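Chapter summary example.
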Amino acid sequence: MDKVYNYWYSRPCNIKHSSKEIGTKEYFDEVENKKYFVEPHILTFADFAKWKNKKVLEIGCGIGTACISFLKENAIYTGIDLTDSAIELAKKRIDVYNYKAELYVMNAEIELPKDKYDLIYSFGVIHHSIDPKKIIENAYNVIKDDGEFRLMLYSKWSYKLFWMMNTYDDFEWKFDNDLNHKIAKYSEAQTGCPQTLTYTFDDIRELLNPYFTITNIWKDHIFIYDIEEYKKHNYVKSKEFESINNSDLKSMEKELGWHTMVICKKVIWLHN
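The structure predicted for these 272 residues follows.
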């Protein structure tokens, strides 16, 4: 856990998505615009407007991009993150936009805020956990009986996997513990992530069992931009995607998307 904490403490997710001064409105605006431009499926998946006047808990709120999107729609928002560096920026963000929210440094494997939520939302976080099953159990204990759990987990079979295998010399075409370590190493734009799990649909069903039942699951998102240009805040398509139209890209994402989007409901016959 110390390695996971240290990695995310030193580089909160999306912190480099703007060249503006960190903590300014211009910085946060650019971070949000870049996030939703590159990952527009988030807007449909989160369905921010649906949660007006509803209690929302975000597990792994990072620097607060989704936080602001929920607050703009008048959700009653609580966010937690493993690191104080992320929470510090998220608090700055809600101050800049003049909103109010509950934000806590908290390890979701150990505890979650003591309340009952209409939505628990976690986008690209739980697959970095050492004990994701414990997070699922804790989520079960704080979600309302008619609540929804929306989470994104990385896909085991994806274009990203094949890209990593063809890009980095230390990959070999076999699945073993060493490969899992290399997937973690190269899973994020800033290399060196110590823990990244990937899942098939069946793996996700097993992860959620017996606490949640899936109502919808699908794959989305292939990153189509040249990474070096992207790091310089330029959107230049990689050569392999220059001639692929949006319709064909969507078809590819359904089969080889890096993001598995999961919407599920609480199994209410279990007792807290």
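To summarize the output: The chain has one domain: 2-266.
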